[in-house]
Hints:
Shape of chain A: elongated
Helix content of chain A: 55-70%
Low-confidence stretches of chain B: none
Distance between the termini of chain A: 43 Å
Order of helices and strands of chain B: EHEEHEEHHHEHEHEEHH
CATH architecture of the domain at 4-8 and 56-95 and 171-272 in chain B: 3-Layer(aba) Sandwich
Order of helices and strands of chain A: HHHEHHHHHHHHHHHHHHH
Helix content of chain B: 25-40%
Number of strands of chain A: 1
Shape of chain B: globular
CATH class of the domain at 4-8 and 56-95 and 171-272 in chain B: Alpha Beta
Largest interface: A-B, 58 and 70 residues
Distance between the termini of chain B: 35 Å
Strand content of chain A: under 5%
Number of helices of chain B: 9
Structural class of chain B: alpha/beta
Oligomer: heterodimer
Structural class of chain A: mainly alpha
Largest sheet of chain A: none
CATH superfamily of the domain at 4-8 and 56-95 and 171-272 in chain B: P-loop containing nucleotide triphosphate hydrolases
Number of strands of chain B: 9
Largest sheet of chain B: 6 strands, mixed
Number of helices of chain A: 18
Amino acid sequence: MSQTKTPLRGRLAARRSPDSGRLAGPGSLLTSDVGVVAPDAEGQLLAEYALEHGLRPSAQRPSVWAYIRQLWRRRYFMISFATARNVAMYTEAKLGQLWQVLTPLLNAGVYFLIFGLLLHINRGIPNYLGFLVTGVFVFNFTQRAFISTSSVMTDSLQLIRALQFPRASLPLAYVMIELQQMLLAIAVLIPILLLTGEPVTWYWLLAIPALLLQTIFNVGVGLLSARLGSQVNDFSQLLPFLMRTWLYVSGVLFSIATVSSNFKVVALLELNPAALYITLTRNALMATQRESAPGSKPYNKALCNIWHTLGHKKGAPEKYQTLSAYCHYVGANPAHFWYYAAGWAVLALVAGFWFFWRAETRYGRG
Amino acid sequence: MAEPMVVVDDLHVVYRVYGAGGDRGTAATTLLRILGRKRRASIREVHAIRGMSFVAYRGDAVGVIGRNGSGKSTLLRAIAGLLPPEQGNVYTAGEAALLGVNAALLDDLTGERNVILGCLAMGMSRQEAKDRYPGIVDFSGVGEFIDLPMKTYSSGMGSRLRFAIAAAKSQDILLVDEALATGDAEFRVKSHNRIEELRADAGTVFLVAHNLEEVELTCNRVIWMERGRIMRQGEDVISIIDEYIATSGGAPIMRDPVTRARIKAQTAEAAKS
């Protein structure tokens, strides 16, 4: 029987690299081929033989739609993975799950101490504490989505090498963890806003679509960051610097309009996704922000001038601070912010998904 | 006509290892390297599989033997689709599941969560995972430790639980990577029987083991690997294993027919109960 295999082996060897050809060469210990090649595979190449019998390459990337279906089937896996990670994160700490709330509170406290009390950059911003805390929490959501997903593939290498599942479920689960943290942060934020005198209005409901768009955006950047982090080892070293720069240009600590008098620079900064989500959330939750945003009321030269001379000074009475509403907006038109925010979300999701999916079979390599 | 389940066609697998040494590792040497546009010395390519071709059929139990580092585990990972081939390809009919000692799940989580997560990751529904849970815990024999984090488990307990999780689902192709090496005698009989069952439903089983008697008992075909290549393969299991033992200088297996009959009877007994 083994003689009948010779033609196939010969053809295979001839087609292949000298390396594998050597295998069948003289002096090889490959003496038995019994059962190795099917009788009907006679004279056929192995690849053709495999495809003819309906076999598929084991490391084949599924189509986009099949991949989305697989991900949908793993939704409970993602949820339990996220919950499990969340629980494991604080199990060793004495205060345990309390840290989920303490972390955002301390974050806000530190920024308020430095930027609000020591550096006095709250010039012209009514309810600076609320402004700051909202900005920090919203920015933190995107920042954490970026940073935590950058290490997810290397952290879960054992799991990836052990089980076959759509790899995108890992970064998605991490973004879910961050979303859960964000919801807790909002639970901390609301009493802060109420204590600083913000009224409860129907506008608060607008925070929901703002958060939704931001979450979609974060899923996109999470997928992007997961692949970059797994393949470019220098990425995670660079990330903290990128994030800090992004923090300073996104109007978290100060109003973007005060950064520059150049219309184009301001517009560019305002339209960066982090700044957009922050502004939309602030406008939804804070009446002081909504009503003092330049351009939010019909232009009135006299009132605007009062703001310019009195309102933007430190410690100015609130009735002057909010007069900025009567000035022209600087930079981009605030009426279009929702469109830009939605555009960023869709762009990030599509690009991130596509970028991650392209490397689906390669994450196990480590 | 035999139905092929796994076709391995001129497979090459290469690992890229970072930080493999060679460089003194200071900032100055790195800068000089980058300025000199030299290739990074500390990336080393390890050519783990160097051109393998074979076909396995439905109903086959293929034993993979060879020295440590000969590429056995890498081969199984490539068949499972977990490692991408550098060249050539692996074709499979249906899904392949890998059972291995190194298939660690999440060490800082409890055994209980690991069971549920493992089931969900394999694509079970929540209800299915819940239904399988008692069976998995029972099979693993981890008992009261199930609600402790897995990092507190002994290596034997950990691998028993992982085996139990991975073996919970019937698969078309089952890849067993020394999963049986760490268990105690009782667990080995249990897992041996589970493999037999899975083989009956599954179709094809690959077994990597250093315990050659285990291979002889379970497998109808053997692949002997040496440095990423096939040394010998075929259905004459006994002669290949004998030759492997002869070249590696180990003690020959005593094939006392009475002992073999007793082992077979024992496993059959355990399967019934």
